[in-house]
């Protein structure tokens, strides 16, 4: 079973636990705000990080 942090969307998780509780995928998803047709924002953020590397340059 997933804990509460895993069930929250990135914005809600940030508000509840602070920005440092977010993964790179969740942080990027916050900036993107929405996904595309057929792809939610978390999936899009994950694919972007897999294709382009980390947020740390």
UniProtKB/TrEMBL annotation:
Pfam families: UPF0758_N (PF20582)
UPF0758 domain ranges (all copies): 9-55
InterPro entries given in the database record: UPF0758, UPF0758_N
TM ranges: none
UniProt protein name: DNA repair protein RadC
Species per Swiss-Prot/TrEMBL record: Shigella flexneri
């Amino acid at each position: 079973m997933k804990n509460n942090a895993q069930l929250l969307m990135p914005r809600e998780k940030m508000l509840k636990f602070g920005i440092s509780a977010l993964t790179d995928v969740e942080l990027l998803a916050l900036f993107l705000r929405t996904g595309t047709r057929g792809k939610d924002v978390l999936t899009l953020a994950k694919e972007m990080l897999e294709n382009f590397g980390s947020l740390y340059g």
